[in-house]
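Q: what sequence does this backbone want?
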């Protein structure tokens, strides 16, 4: 746990690996900062004007600079080849196979709110249409579609369970937004015209804020939501409660 370094709570299965990569990168940056800072002080002293009243344009000679540059290059290659690229391949490129135990949610961003759409007990997302979009139906969900009758929609409130992979289908209705969930170690741009899949597995219960990480307009400060990570039992209870609210009174 690296919370003492100022990092947010690590609440997803891949958070630890992300943190390890960040720590390694910052150690490299610290070594470079101290090393080049010390070298700069040495150069200021070694080539001071009192000792060298006439400037020399031949440059420094020796292998020190070349050795340092090669060392930095090797360190960066190691970080990429053995940490960053394998992590990207496993957690980003390789989409998890469809599984009955995963939780799929459509997330549609707009100025200035987040819309969440769950498929309901039948596991199917209902039809949506731009012609049906209005203030009371921001997703344009067609409730006449049989698959849409049990769909659950929320605004600025995302609910997910621990221990199950969450697959987010992210898109935007207007401008570029960005889904920022620091505790899950997730940040992904929402781009108009593109449905971008994002997946992660929550491991810790809690309630945190979703922040838009892209400047999206004059009311960007309002572009926030909250997500709650439940135990599996609590999540099922929430689903049942939301489904009951859809039933005609």
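A:
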């Amino acid at each position: 746990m690296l919370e003492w370094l100022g990092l947010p709570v690590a609440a997803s299965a891949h958070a630890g690996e992300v943190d390890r990569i960040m720590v390694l990168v910052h150690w490299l940056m610290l070594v470079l900062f101290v090393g080049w800072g010390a070298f700069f002080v040495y150069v200021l002293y070694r080539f001071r004007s009192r000792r060298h009243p006439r400037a020399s344009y031949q440059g420094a000679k020796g292998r020190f600079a070349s050795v340092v540059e090669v060392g930095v290059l090797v360190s960066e290659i190691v970080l990429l080849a053995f940490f960053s690229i394998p992590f990207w391949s496993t957690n980003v490129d390789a989409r998890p196979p469809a599984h009955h135990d995963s939780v799929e949610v459509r997330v549609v961003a707009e100025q200035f709110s987040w819309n969440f759409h769950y498929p309901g007990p039948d596991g199917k997302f209902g039809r949506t249409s731009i012609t049906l979009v209005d203030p009371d139906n921001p997703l344009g969900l067609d409730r006449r579609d049989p698959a849409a009758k049990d769909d659950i929609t929320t605004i600025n409130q995302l609910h997910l369970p621990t221990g199950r992979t969450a697959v987010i289908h992210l898109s935007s209705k207007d401008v570029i937004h960005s889904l920022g969930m620091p505790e899950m170690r997730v940040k992904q741009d929402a781009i108009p015209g593109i449905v971008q899949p994002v997946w992660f597995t929550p491991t810790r219960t809690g309630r945190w804020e979703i922040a838009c990480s892209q400047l999206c307009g004059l009311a960007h400060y309002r572009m926030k939501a909250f997500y709650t990570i439940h135990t599996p039992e609590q999540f099922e209870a929430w689903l049942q409660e939301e489904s009951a609210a859809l039933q005609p009174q």
